Amino acid sequence: MPFWRNIYGWCLFLSLSTSSLRPSLSGLSLRDVLIQPERRTSIEPDVRSRTMGVADTTGEQPFDRAQELKRFEESKLGVKGLVDSGLTSLPPLFIHPPETRSDLKPARPTPGSIPTIDLSGCDSARRPSVVEEVGRAARELGFFQVVNHGVPAEVLDSTIAAVKAFHEQPMEAKARIYRRDMETGVSFFSNVDLFHSKAASWRDTLQIRLGPKLADVEEIPEVCRNEVLEWNQQVQRLGGLLLGLLSEGLGLSPGKLQELTCLEMRVMVGHYYPYCPQPDLTVGLTSHTDPGVITLLLQDQVGGLQVKHGDEWVDVAPVPGALVVNIGDILQIMSNDEYKSVDHRVLANPSQEPRVSIAVFCNPSNREKEFGPFPELVSSDKPPAFREFTFKEYMRRFFTKELDGKSLINFFRA
Ligand SMILES: O=C(O)CCC(=O)C(=O)O
After folding, report:
1. Which CATH class name applies to 116-412?
2. pLDDT band at 109 (very low <50, low <70, confident <90, very high)
3. This prediction's pTM
4. Are strands 116-118 and 143-147 parallel, antiparallel or unpaired?
């Protein structure tokens, strides 16, 4: 899997990269792409059919992929715009290769395989047992859910509702911030890896830089501005708590990960997975690992997130009021392979109800510091599994095309 397919890599890339590394955009407006756009909020079927090649649902007829990508991008419609136009079959752009499609079976029902950890009392008597549970989940699965985390239920609901409201605005409002550069720290796009993946996926994304320098507040769409700012506060508090538990789970002092600035660089992605008419032909999000330290994910009740456990895909079934936490590659490295950063993906959404999820990726902001396995976790029995690197080097490697999926981790193996 090329690194471009790793969505978090892209988030980091967009946050940090220089303009010379960014994919270029044509800058065409909706007016240039659509007929009489001032009277429309969606494209007409005949236009859709011409611009998106919707007549070919098998992916077998030749089509000019580069041209179709360009048209889709320049339309600024996103996947939701296609659905709103009434499309009933997938444009070839979105049809994934057989090797991906053959693996899209729904996960076997395995209730309880992703643990839900109760954080109540984790600052008092229950702390040792919470640390034990968090450490075990991070070692065995790389994923867990948390409840009684201190984020009020109204905040969870209003954050989901605000991101949903952003995506459900009239197309023109979203098109204004449809872009792939992160100069303002706010962008809306469909498929972060649109120009680099084998096939596009069925989702749109609102991306906002939360730290170390918050995006221009005026640029954050008004429809979700207050909720995003509140979410940033909650993530900082809960992120600090989780990093403390994860540090202790490794036998380190609770402040260890935070001292290394691991919570400071934060990027939020608000995904919208609309109804997909042919969910067997595409995915919502391709399989990837998150390269950072940890990811905090708020998902609604629709479902579709799956985690690789051994050779099986396991559903991360929505639990009301819960947040999902997963370990990223850097934390696997720092933990000297104790904690696991695992592949996860999202199936295309077959339900009429759109799926909304909000991930915040937490990363070190200190790019010059050397990272590697914590010396405390290295011994003659357990030699360092990885060499040291700066976050700067890590990012540079990240941008080399040879890297794919887990090979980022493997590149740094000792
Ligand atoms: O939408 C989800 O549930 C997962 C999102 C995710 O894995 C990502 O943004 O990297």
Report:
1. mainly beta
2. low
3. 0.86
4. parallel
